[in-house]
Amino acid sequence: MSPQTVCQTDFKPSELGFGAGALSGNYDKIESHWPVEACRAALRGGINVFDTSPYYGDSEIILGDALEALKSEYPRESYYIQTKVGRYGYRPRDFDYSGKRVRESVMESMRRLHTDYIDVVLCHDVEFVDFNDVVGSGNALESLFQLKDEGVIKYVGCSGYPLPVLLKIAEHQHSKGKPLDVILSYCHYTLQNSKLAEYVPKFRAAGVRYIANASPLGMALFRDAGPPDWHPAHADLREAAKACAQAAKENGLNIAELASIYSFSGREPSNLDCTYIGCENADDVKRALDTLERVKARKQGTETPSEQEVQVLEKIRSLLAPYQNYSWQSPTPKELAA
């Protein structure tokens, strides 16, 4: 696909967004040539938004270098970049939501990403800090809105895991006449937990213009290799997820593809703007785009799920039933104790 200038007066993300946290190496070892190839495959396939964060290891640097290497093919104005502020480590003490640090962080991100503006900046994992650290005078959101007024960034938002926390912030900002532009929720539209669908109308009522879903695989909960050791899901849910993967494999299916189909299928009925999926390499991008095309074909009636897939999904629903719409604690006890 030839590069096209993305809309500069309105945020129009593609149905799929590129989750560049996967480039950090926190999930798997990344080969040096993968990022450029993955970004090229994404842009050629019509993906126009990349999500990263200073917290994701070297993700900003790796993504920035990859996009810089592609600038003759895909100039900066042909895609959106979304990054975050506030979280710089694993523990609650590694957060800094002060206005001064937020401004410094945005400038640091621009240097890493080789850009003189950022399309979207989110307060990262807002549940780790006090409410006032997010919304109070001189703190994170106030600083981000100032940067928006200066033209350094275009859209302001929040990301996090507990939906009630995100909604409280969105409603507060709406009452102040400074509504959030963007909410990024993760692991809340998956095979195991689809609570985000219930919250979308509430976010819209609070003036949020763009709502995105991330981690359709539940932060690698639903993949053949199983979740990484650091995954916050409790042992019983992890075992159930492994059983789901095994049930799919025994029937010639792939759990990651089934999980992606489920998540991607929820975009229109749930009124979501974008779903971010982590991609480590070009093959990951191709699989995600192919899965999206399958979802579209099913919507149009040109493809139907096989009987085998229907049966496996019934088995998966049964395995996950005890944990349906369960949300783990965030911050986790391990994070709080660190």
User: In percent, how much strand structure appears in the residues?
Assistant: 5-15%
Task: Kindly state the number of beta strands.
Answer: 8
Span between N and C termini? 46 Å
| Average of pLDDT | 96
Going by helix content, strand content and strand pairing, the class is alpha/beta
* Rg: 19 Å
Helix segment count?
12
Question: Uncertain runs with pLDDT below 50, 5 residues or more?
Answer: none
SSE pattern: EHEHEHEHHEHEHEHHEHHH
**Which descriptor suits the 3D outline?**
globular
Describe this structure in words.
It is a single chain. This protein is α/β, with parallel strands linked by helices and 338 residues long. Helices cover 41% and strands 12% of the residues. The protein is built from 12 helices and 8 strands. It has an 8-stranded parallel β-barrel, surrounded by 5 helices. The chain starts with 15 loop residues before the first strand and ends with a helix. The model has no long low-confidence stretch (mean pLDDT 96).
